[in-house]
C-alpha cells in the first residue's frame, strides 16, 4: 500500500483574512447571514481545492469553523444552554455563545471576557499550549445531548458536490468532555460520556451514509496525564464508536506531545488508524512500531504544525524508510492541524531572502510531505532535486552569519548564577527603596498603557505608510505622552507611566528593536473567531543594538518629579508570543532575550529610573502540558526573568505584571521571581485569588487589581475600598499597592479617567486613620 498524505486541518481564515472581514461585516450588520455563508463556502472551497492541487490524499472537512471548532461540537451535541437557544436562528445562537448578546467583548493579551448585555459570551481559554482560544463547553449534571446540528455532514456533502471526498474532523468525545467546564463543583465531565456517545454514534452513521470512508477523531487529551478511569473511558467510547458505523474508518488523532503511558491504550483501541506527533515526541515512533498491531494504520506527524521552519527532508526520509518498509498503511502528516501555521510563504515578498529560504508555511509543509511521500513510494532518486534543495537550506541556516553571533553565545556561556540574584535580599532592598522613593501607604500606579485611541492608531498607520514623517510622528507621540503625564499628576497618582503610545504591540515593539527577529506581512494565525495574530519570527541569536525604551522613558521622566516607571516586556512573554527557532532550545533563546533586556534594565537605571516594570503576561501559559515537565520550565523561565532584572542596585525597584490570577499551583515560582512588586488581576474574583499569596507565603509587595479593565463600567470608590479591605485581610497593609488589573490600552479615556480618579480616592481613604 503506497504511503499517503493528510493535513489534519488547514488554515481557515483565508489568504487575506477573508473570514475575519466577512465575520466583522456580518456582526456589524453590514452583510446578511446569507452573504456570510456564501463567503464561508468560498473559503472552504478554496481550501479544498488548494489541498487537492497540492496532492493531499486525506483532505479534511469540518475543520473550517465560523468561530471555533469546539463551539461547533457543542452545537452538534446540543450542548447549548437554554438561554442561548431562545436567541434566534441557529447562527444567532452560535454567535451569542461565542460573543455574548448585547454585550461588550473585551480582549487583553491572553484572554477575553464579555460584560454587560443580556447574555454573556461563553468562557474562552487556550487550546492546549497554543495561542488559539476555544469556547469552553458548559457541562451540568444530568445534561442531555442530541444531534442538533449536522454541520459535519453538510460540510462533507458540500465537498463531495465539488468532487472532493473528504475526511471529516471531529473533536473526540473524551477530549470534548475533558475540555469542558462543569457548572457545578464535583461534577466529573466524563460522567456525561454515556450521554454524548449516542450522538457521536448517530453522527458517524450519518457521515457513513453520506459516503464518508473515514473520519478523523481528535483526542489530544491522550498527550496529557490521564488516570486509569480516563483511559477506561477512552476504551468504552471507542468501543461504542467502532460499532456505530462498522465500515467507517476512524483515524484517532493525537498531537502536541507524546502519548507516554497512554500509548498502550491508544494502540489497542478499536480504530483503524492512530496519528502521532513525531515533532514534539520523535521517540514514540519506535514504541508505536513495536506496539501497534500490524493492521493499525500509523499517521506520522513529521513536519512541524506549530512552527514555520522548513523540515530536514533527507533526515526525515532516512528515519521514515524503515517504517515504510515494515508497515502497510502509512500516512504522512503535519504534527497537528495546520490551523496553527500561516498559510503561504508566497505572500511574503519583503522578508530577507535568506530567512525566507528557511521557512515553510502551511502550503509549503504540504509540499514537503509530498516530497517525502514520493521519496518513500518511488525511491530517493525520484526526489533528488528536492532533497538537495532541502539540504542546501539546512546547510545555509546552519552556517549563516545572520543566525550565529559568537558574541551572544559567549555571553550566554558566561552567565553565572550570581547574575540572576539581586545584591541584597528583599528586606534590604525594601528599606533602600522606601528611603529613596518615599511613597505613601497604598501607593497608586497603573500597569503601563493608556488608551490607544483612534488618533494614536491613525498616526501610527500614517507613519507606517510614510504619510507622516518621523519628526511629525515623534512630535505627536510626545504630545500624547505629555498629556498623559500631566493628567496623572493632576489626579494624584504616585507612580507614573509614560503610556506606551509609541508601542504597536508589547512584543512586536521589542522584536523590531532586537536583532535576530523577522516580521512578516501576511503570516496571520487565528487566535479566536475573527482575531488573528502575526507572531514575530525569532530566527537568530538575539542582541540589542541600541537602547529600546530609554529615550521615551527619559522624555517622560523629564516632565515630572514623580517617579516614572520604566516599562519592558519580559523574556518569557517575548518568547511565548513568537515563532521560536528550533535549532537551539527554547530556554537558550529565552536566555538571550533576557540578556538583551538586562542591558535595557541597566540602561534605564543609569538614565535615572527608580522603578522598572518587566511584564510577564505569558509566563503561565508557557507551562508544559504534562506536570512532570513543569519544574524544568519554571526553572529556566524564572531564571530568565531574574537574569533580566538583577543587574540593578538594591534601591532600584523591580515590578512585574501578570494579567491573570491563577497562581495557586505556581506560587512558589512566582515568589522565586523575587520582584519587589507584582501586579496581578483580581478585581473580578473579589480578591479570592489572593489565596495563594496570603498566609505569609508571599513576602514581597503586591498590587491586586481593583479596577476590572475588561469591563466598560466605572468602579466606585466604595467598591475599590472594599476590595482593598478584603486584600488587607489576607496581606499586610504595607504590602499593598493600588492599581488596575491590566493595561488600559483597550479602554477609552472617558472610561479610564473617572475610574482612576476613583481609584486614587479609594487609596487616600485607606490612608486615613481609622475613625
Ligand atoms: N504594560 C502592558 C500594558 O499596560 C502590560 C499588558 C499586559 O500585560 N497584557 O499594556
Ligand atoms: Zn495584563
In total, the number of domains comes to: 2
| Bound molecule kinds, no repeats | glutamine, zinc ion
**End-to-end separation:** 85 Å
Our count of helices gives: 27
List keywords for this structure.
771 residues; alpha/beta; TIM Barrel; eight-stranded parallel sheet; five-stranded parallel sheet; 23 strands; globular; binds zinc ion
What does this structure look like?
The protein is an alpha/beta fold. It is built from 27 helices and 23 strands. It has an 8-stranded parallel sheet. It has a 5-stranded parallel sheet with strand order 19-20-21-22-23. Helix 1 (18-27) runs antiparallel to helix 2 and helix 12 packs across helix 14 (362-378). The chain starts with a strand and ends with a helix. Mean pLDDT is 95; it is low at 109-116. The chain binds glutamine and zinc ion. Residues 108-109, 447-449, 500, 506, 567, 615, 617, 657, 659, 742-743, 745 line the site of glutamine.
Amino acid at each position: 500500500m503506497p504511503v499517503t498524505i493528510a493535513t489534519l486541518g488547514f488554515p481557515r481564515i483565508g489568504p487575506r483574512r477573508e473570514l475575519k472581514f466577512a465575520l466583522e461585516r456580518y456582526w456589524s450588520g453590514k452583510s446578511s447571514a446569507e452573504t456570510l455563508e456564501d463567503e464561508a463556502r468560498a473559503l472552504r472551497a478554496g481550501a479544498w481545492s488548494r489541498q487537492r492541487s497540492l496532492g493531499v490524499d486525506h483532505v479534511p472537512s469540518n475543520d473550517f469553523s465560523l468561530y471555533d471548532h469546539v463551539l461547533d461540537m457543542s452545537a452538534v451535541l446540543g450542548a447549548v444552554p437554554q438561554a442561548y437557544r431562545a436567541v434566534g436562528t441557529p447562527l444567532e445562537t452560535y454567535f451569542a455563545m461565542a460573543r455574548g448578546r448585547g454585550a461588550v467583548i473585551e480582549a487583553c493579551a491572553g484572554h477575553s471576557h464579555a460584560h454587560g448585555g443580556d447574555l454573556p459570551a461563553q468562557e474562552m481559554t487556550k487550546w492546549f499550549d497554543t495561542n488559539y482560544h476555544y469556547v469552553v463547553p458548559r457541562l451540568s449534571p444530568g445534561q442531555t445531548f442530541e444531534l442538533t446540528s449536522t454541520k459535519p455532514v453538510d460540510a462533507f456533502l458540500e465537498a463531495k458536490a465539488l468532487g472532493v471526498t473528504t475526511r471529516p474532523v471531529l473533536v473526540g468525545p473524551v477530549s470534548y468532555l475533558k475540555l469542558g467546564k462543569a457548572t457545578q463543583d464535583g461534577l466529573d465531565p466524563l460522567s456525561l460520556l454515556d450521554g454524548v456517545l449516542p450522538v457521536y454514534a448517530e453522527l458517524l452513521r450519518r457521515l457513513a451514509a453520506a459516503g464518508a470512508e473515514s473520519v478523523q477523531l481528535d483526542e489530544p487529551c491522550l498527550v496529557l496525564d490521564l488516570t486509569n478511569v480516563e483511559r477506561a473511558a477512552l476504551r468504552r467510547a471507542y468501543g461504542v464508536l467502532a460499532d456505530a458505523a462498522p465500515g467507517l474508518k476512524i483515524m484517532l488523532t493525537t498531537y502536541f506531545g507524546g502519548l507516554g503511558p497512554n500509548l498502550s491504550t491508544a494502540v489497542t483501541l478499536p480504530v483503524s488508524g492512530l496519528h502521532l506527533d513525531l515533532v514534539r515526541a520523535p521517540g514514540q515512533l519506535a514504541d508505536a512500531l513495536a506496539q501497534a498491531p500490524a493492521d493499525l494504520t500509523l499517521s506520522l506527524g513529521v513536519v512541524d504544525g506549530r512552527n514555520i521552519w522548513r523540515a530536514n527532508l533527507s533526515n526525515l526520509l532516512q528515519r521514515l524508510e524503515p517504517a515504510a518498509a515494515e508497515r502497510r498503511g502509512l500516512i504522512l502528516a503535519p504534527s497537528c492541524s495546520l490551523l496553527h501555521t500561516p498559510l503561504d510563504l508566497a505572500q511574503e515578498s519583503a522578508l530577507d531572502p535568506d530567512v525566507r529560504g528557511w521557512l515553510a508555511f502551511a502550503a509549503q509543509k504540504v509540499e514537503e510531505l509530498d516530497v517525502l511521500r514520493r521519496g518513500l513510494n518511488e525511491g530517493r532518486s525520484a526526489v533528488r532535486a528536492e532533497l538537495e534543495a532541502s539540504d542546501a537550506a539546512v546547510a545555509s541556516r546552519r552556517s549563516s552569519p545572520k543566525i550565529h553571533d559568537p558574541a551572544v553565545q559567549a555571553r550566554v556561556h558566561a552567565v553565572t548564577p550570581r547574575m540572576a540574584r539581586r545584591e541584597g535580599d528583599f528586606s534590604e532592598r525594601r528599606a533602600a527603596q522606601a528611603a529613596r522613593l518615599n511613597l505613601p501607604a497604598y501607593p497608586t500606579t497603573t500597569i503601563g498603557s493608556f488608551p490607544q485611541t483612534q488618533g494614536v492608531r491613525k498616526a501610527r498607520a500614517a507613519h507606517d505608510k510614510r504619510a507622516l514623517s518621523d519628526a511629525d510622528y515623534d512630535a505627536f507621540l510626545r504630545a500624547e505622552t505629555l498629556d498623559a503625564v500631566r493628567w496623572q499628576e493632576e489626579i494624584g497618582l504616585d507612580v507614573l507611566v509614560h503610556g506606551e503610545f509609541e508601542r504597536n504591540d508589547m512584543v512586536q515593539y521589542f522584536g523590531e528593536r532586537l536583532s535576530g527577529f523577522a516580521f512578516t506581512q501576511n503570516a496571520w494565525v487565528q487566535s479566536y473567531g475573527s482575531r488573528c495574530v502575526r507572531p514575530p519570527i525569532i530566527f537568530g541569536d538575539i542582541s540589542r543594538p541600541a537602547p529600546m525604551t530609554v529615550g521615551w522613558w527619559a522624555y517622560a521622566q523629564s516632565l515630572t518629579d514623580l517617579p516614572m516607571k520604566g516599562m519592558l516586556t519580559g523574556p518569557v512573554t517575548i518568547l511565548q508570543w513568537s515563532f521560536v527557532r528550533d535549532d537551539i532550545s527554547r530556554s537558550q533563546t529565552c536566555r538571550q532575550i533576557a540578556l538583551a533586556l538586562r542591558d535595557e534594565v541597566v540602561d534605564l537605571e543609569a538614565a535615572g529610573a527608580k522603578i522598572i516594570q518587566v511584564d510577564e503576561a505569558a509566563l503561565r501559559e508557557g507551562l508544559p502540558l504534562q506536570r512532570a515537565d513543569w519544574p524544568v520550565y519554571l526553572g529556566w523561565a524564572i531564571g530568565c526573568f531574574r537574569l533580566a532584572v538583577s543587574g540593578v542596585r538594591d534601591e532600584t525597584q523591580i515590578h512585574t505584571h501578570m494579567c491573570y490570577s491563577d497562581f495557586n499551583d505556581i506560587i512558589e515560582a512566582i515568589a522565586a521571581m523575587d520582584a519587589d512588586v507584582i501586579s496581578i488581576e483580581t478585581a473580578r474574583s473579589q480578591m479570592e485569588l489572593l489565596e495563594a499569596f496570603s498566609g505569609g507565603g508571599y513576602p514581597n509587595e503586591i498590587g491586586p487589581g481593583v479596577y476590572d479593565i475588561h469591563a466598560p463600567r466605572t468602579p466606585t470608590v466604595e467598591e475599590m475600598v472594599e476590595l482593598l479591605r478584603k486584600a488587607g485581610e489576607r496581606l499586610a497593609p504595607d504590602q499593598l499597592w493600588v492599581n488596575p488589573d491590566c493595561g488600559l490600552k483597550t479602554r477609552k479615556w472617558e472610561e479610564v479617567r473617572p475610574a482612576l480618579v476613583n481609584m486614587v480616592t479609594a487609596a487616600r481613604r485607606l490612608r486615613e486613620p481609622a475613625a
